[in-house]
Amino acid sequence: LVEDLTPLNIDSGPTLFNHNISIEGLNCYVSSFLKWTTVGNRAEAVFGRIEGLISVSDEQGNFYYKQAGLTSTLDGLTDESVYLINRERGSTSAQLLLQGGERILHNDDYGFDYSFTTGEANWFPWCISVSRVITSVVRDHKEKINSITDSHGNQWTSQGVGTSNTLQEFEPGKGYLVSVNEGFSLTILEIDDRSGALDSQFPIHPSVS
């Protein structure tokens, strides 16, 4: 995963950034620390050039289909959302380059908040530009989580901490399926120790300090 956090403009307007997302496998959940509405907004413009693309869907069950003649219900993209990319068998790794987008903010800081609900799995986006250890993010809420699963079936559970978990970190560009037994909310900021950002394994990028 390659990140480019170099500002793209120096005028008085909003600072813009790029985000390069690796697309691996046939089914891939993706998210971004950029606002989807500032990198093209429409599903066709953002996802249409991905190698072997069949469809893109959102958590609400809307679909964009690459093949002409199929009815698409997904057009405009929503900020801080996860999208499931479905590709043809035999497709190789690809890159999704989001160019000239605005960073997601929470109360004037780089970051976001998210509310988890019970029932169907939550499509959880990772909307900051650094990886972070899952336990440092969920903190006291870990017993409320049944499981966290990535696109490749790697999983984190509170029972597996320190032993059997095959998923350890949230990573930029990826989306996750999170099943919970009790609802809760998190605020996740890029440069705030409340969200675990002081973990020395993941230094703050100088361009956002």
Please specify the SSE layout and strand pairing.
Layout: E1 3-4, E2 16-23, E3 27-30, H1 43-47, E4 53-57, E5 63-65, E6 83-87, E7 94-102, E8 105-106, E9 109-116, E10 122-125, E11 132-133, H2 134-138, E12 145-149, E13 155-156, E14 169-170, E15 175-180, E16 184-189
Antiparallel strand pairs: 1-2, 2-7, 3-6, 4-5, 4-6, 8-9, 9-16, 10-15, 11-14, 12-13, 12-15
Defining key terms:
209 residues, four-stranded antiparallel sheet, single chain, mainly beta, 16 strands, disordered C terminus, 5% helix
Describe the structure.
The protein is mostly beta strands and 209 residues long. It is 5% helix and 35% strand. The protein has 2 helices and 16 strands. The strands form 5 sheets. It has a 4-stranded antiparallel sheet. A 4-stranded antiparallel sheet has the order 10-15-12-13, with no helix packed on it. Strands 1-2-7 form a 3-stranded antiparallel sheet, with no helix packed on it. The two termini are 21 Å apart.
